[in-house]
Design goal:
heterodimer, B: 90% helix
């Protein structure tokens, strides 16, 4: 540790500052497979193994692993699906639980050593997840209400006087079909990206402060202490954002299935 | 039915996670849409930004109206 610190303190290393090329794997992978791609695959594998092993040999009295997977699943089914959507929510339990665990695992990568960055801090991944959710809630709404009926549900505010409708219908349309998917993706992305940045600033800030002079060593220690504390905060944010993403998916599905909003 | 009360309350509570963003979305879309319409009118009539200003103010008002309609008491 001390050797590393002194090397960093002596001169600017070749990898400073971090570049986009840091995310690209060497060799023929470029540009199809980046480190983020590999992390997403690992997250998929972790979720798959978690549920498959838990349900490989199901018993009426569950073992420890089975109990864990069942708890997670029932949290997704009852805590999110049924509570938000109602009886129909059971149908969406696999989707919501997959979202919850997949995003949760990816977010936690942000603070795991060797990963150090969450794939969800790359805008492409929240955008892809949001695209799935967007297609799903529009499809469900169209199937439930038909084209005109769904447009009515989504664009006409309940109980608004008739003369104001031409003024507010474009706004409801923009808000529900353009702003909503945008904010859904950006909320997840920005939270994870900002978290990554904060950890980076405080960790590398410690090294930079050491570089300035011996008098700044206490500040550098403070910076590292904050980095440790903020890592715990990031764990909370990671799990919370996975939960919020799944919850909002449920809210949007419910909005498409409901008679009015 | 008594059984229906519980989910509805939880649902309202949790869609609260979305309220801030939805309110912001209404305000922005109001100003953007009617501001854009005002900008088009500016081009059409050759006025320099008057209709744009009026459009943005009206859009903000309508956005506020929608937020109150949806979340107000």
């Amino acid at each position: 540790m001390y050797g590393q610190v002194s090397v960093l303190a002596k001169e600017t290393p070749h990898w400073w500052p971090p570049k986009v090329s840091d995310f690209i794997l060497p060799g023929w992978f470029y540009p199809w497979v980046t480190k983020f791609t590999v992390m997403v695959w690992i997250a998929v594998a972790i979720v798959l193994v978690f549920f498959l092993v838990g349900y490989r040999n199901p018993k009426i009295v569950p073992g420890r692993w089975q109990w864990l997977t069942e708890s997670v699943y029932s949290f997704g089914r009852d805590g999110i699906g049924q509570d938000i959507i109602g009886h129909e929510g059971i149908r969406f339990a696999p989707y919501l639980t997959s979202l919850l665990t997949f995003i949760g695992v990816m977010n936690v990568f942000g603070i795991l050593p060797l990963f150090q960055v969450a794939p969800t801090a790359h805008i492409a991944i929240p955008v892809a997840l949001t695209a799935v959710s967007y297609v799903l809630y529009i499809y469900l709404g169209l199937r439930r209400h038909g084209f005109v009926g769904f447009l009515k549900v989504m664009t006409i505010p309940a109980g608004a006087p008739l003369y104001i409708l031409p003024l507010v219908v474009p706004l409801e349309f923009l808000s529900n079909f353009i702003i909503r998917p945008f904010t859904l993706a950006v909320r997840l992305f920005a939270n994870m990206f900002a978290g990554h940045f904060i950890l980076l600033v405080f960790t590398l800030g410690g090294f930079v402060l050491l570089n300035v002079g011996a008098g700044f060593a206490p500040l550098s220690a403070l910076s590292w202490l904050l980095a440790i504390v903020l890592t715990f905060l990031e764990l909370l944010v990671a799990l919370l954002q996975a939960y919020v993403f799944a919850i909002l998916n449920a809210v949007y599905i419910q909005g498409s299935l409901a008679e009015e909003h | 039915m008594a059984g229906d009360q519980q989910p509805r309350r939880r649902r309202d509570e949790w869609s609260a996670a979305d309220i801030g963003w939805t309110a912001l979305g209404y305000l922005i879309s109001g100003m953007a849409f009617w501001g854009f319409v005002g900008w088009l009118i500016d081009h059409w009539l050759g006025t320099r930004g008057i209709a744009l200003g009026i459009g943005v103010v009206i859009g903000a008002g309508l956005g506020t109206f929608l937020v109150m309609r949806r979340f107000g008491a």
